[in-house]
Amino acid sequence: MGNGMWVVAVFVSCCCLFTSLQPVISGCLLDGEEAAALHTLKASLLHSDINPPSSWVEGNDCCSWEGVGCSSNTTTTTSSSTTSTTIDTTNTSRRVVEALHLSRFAWPYTYPLKQWHLNLSVFKVFHELRHLDVSGNNFRRSLESLDITGLRKLEHLNLSYNALEEGRGIPTSSWTSLSSLRFLDLSWNRISGPFPSGKKFCIHL
Ligand SMILES: *[C@@H]1O[C@H](CO)[C@@H](O)[C@H](O)[C@H]1NC(C)=O
Ligand SMILES: *[C@@H]1O[C@H](CO)[C@@H](O)[C@H](O)[C@H]1NC(C)=O
Ligand SMILES: *[C@@H]1O[C@H](CO)[C@@H](O)[C@H](O)[C@H]1NC(C)=O
Ligand SMILES: *[C@@H]1O[C@H](CO)[C@@H](O)[C@H](O)[C@H]1NC(C)=O
């Protein structure tokens, strides 16, 4: 094989690697990470023998899935070159998830009890999330497995009716990064506190 062929081969294998790391989910107009997380949520519901909402169809835009609220995030970049006196601005628009209303998937709490088997670190990729309601899902996980580090815009968090155990509590790093949190509902879990101080919001226990 000549040198040229090697270059082509390396290039092709790099492309394959790149595309395999970036899941391409047809129809979903969100960035790879957020789209992949929504599909993880759906897969985990099926794995837990819970029917996802009927609108959660592969191939449809994920933002039209019931309970998923999206908004548009526009960032403006400016560039100027030394040869020109004009400044170019480019607006790039992408869609982001700002609300997840995923409540009562394990409802009603009648026997046999349903339980949503979900790795609670899935939510950390939704960086623009403002509203997260995952109440009534009977997660039965430890609160310390809830990894919501970096959700700086999160204002409303409803974790009620989930049989969450306290464990070592929400990790401090997660907790301190929730700088916009106004409302936290932790009722109907197996948690007794104490809670980190210095935060001002309503807590329902
Ligand atoms: C848009 O996204 C950027 C980068 O993630 C973020 O810093 C900014 O706050 C977002 N803007 C809005 C209006 O959400
Ligand atoms: C980018 O957005 C700003 C503010 O919304 C607007 O004034 C400007 O005209 C836009 N620029 C382009 C190139 O679309
Ligand atoms: C949950 O997912 C994270 C990666 O997102 C992984 O590091 C962790 O081990 C998982 N936890 C469990 C209990 O599977
Ligand atoms: C939290 O969720 C529970 C169960 O879905 C609901 O009854 C409660 O009203 C919610 N709390 C708030 C403040 O919305």
TrEMBL record:
Residues 1-21 form the signal peptide. It comes from Colocasia esculenta (Wild taro). Residues 33-71 form the Leucine-rich repeat-containing N-terminal plant-type domain. The keyword Signal applies. Pfam families: LRR_8, LRRNT_2. It comes from the Eukaryota. The keyword Cytoplasm does not apply. This is Leucine-rich repeat-containing N-terminal plant-type domain-containing protein. Keywords: Leucine-rich repeat, Repeat, Signal.
